[in-house]
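## Example record

The block below lists the input lines for one assembly entry, exactly as stored, with component labels intact.
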Amino acid sequence: MSYTEAEIWLIMVLMGIGTFLIRFSFLGLIGDHKMPDWVLRHLRYTAVAILPGLVAPLVVWPDATGGTPDPARLAAAGVTLAVGYWSKGVVRAMLAGAATLYGLQFLLG
Amino acid sequence: MPGETKKSTYLRGLTDALPFVVVVVPFALLFGVVATEAGLPMSQVMGFSFLVVAGASQFAALQFMSENAPILVVLASALAVNLRMAMYSAAITPHLGALSLPRRLIVSYFLVDQSYAMSVAEYEKKPAMPLHLKLAYFAGVSTPICPLWFASTYLGARLGDAIPAEYGLDFAMPIAFLAMVAPALRTPAHIAAAAVSIIASLALTWVPLNLGLLLAGLLAMMTGAEIERRMS
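Predicted structure tokens for the full assembly:
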């Protein structure tokens, strides 16, 4: 790394300000104003639209295996989704996923 | 909520967020370790976690910095990773938009993946929740997450490379996020949106600056909204 100390602080502060403004964007500008129905309809799907896409590449091509699909990680992801979907319990889903991962890693070596 | 006070709602948020300790701690530890190994002094490692509070983008910035990328490239890539938070901001606005400006500023600082996802799931389960209880729940959820983010970064920077990389800890985040999403798959519209999100994000990994995820997210939101419109 060949940045000066000041440059690193500059990166950090600008990243902090930028990230904060992204978070504040709608909350700050729209605040209490009513949003149109079609916008609200789209926003209801934000979590299920972003989080699965965020983790999908990490599940299919994990860094830990150098990007090769790994049966233990794929199974753990599947079990987490299935248990969370049917039991509606976040903690139960996480525990089931972790148990699957460690169990299969142990069995498959 | 009849019978619910600010305090009990806050405590419920706090307990609901406790399982996410297993995500936040290893992720922040790892950032502390990696940033220290990349040559950042403690003050700067902590500066990142305090000023940015967004793990994935902090890793992205480190990655580009270790390649000595131009400052603008570092900033653009790291901020692109965080653009998803604009959608979180929009999605939480119908619930918390009526707060005073100082409170909205504070909520914005603490608006991370977990606090957003847990709070909105709670608000949708209880649409009649009054504003002050919604805020109390958000504060409760944020309480274990953000301070632990700072503390674990510090610990990671202290420990350096004493933590073995191979404990499958890389997979804590995917498992936690999937566990958050799965109970939210309440309708065919939600399931279709999640499926489109996964397929599109895998198909669009070639798009630079992580923008493939945003495109996938937009496509998935349009899918969910369109199915809801046709079914209602």
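Chain A touches chain B through 76 residues (CB under 8 Å). The radius of gyration of chain A is 20 Å.
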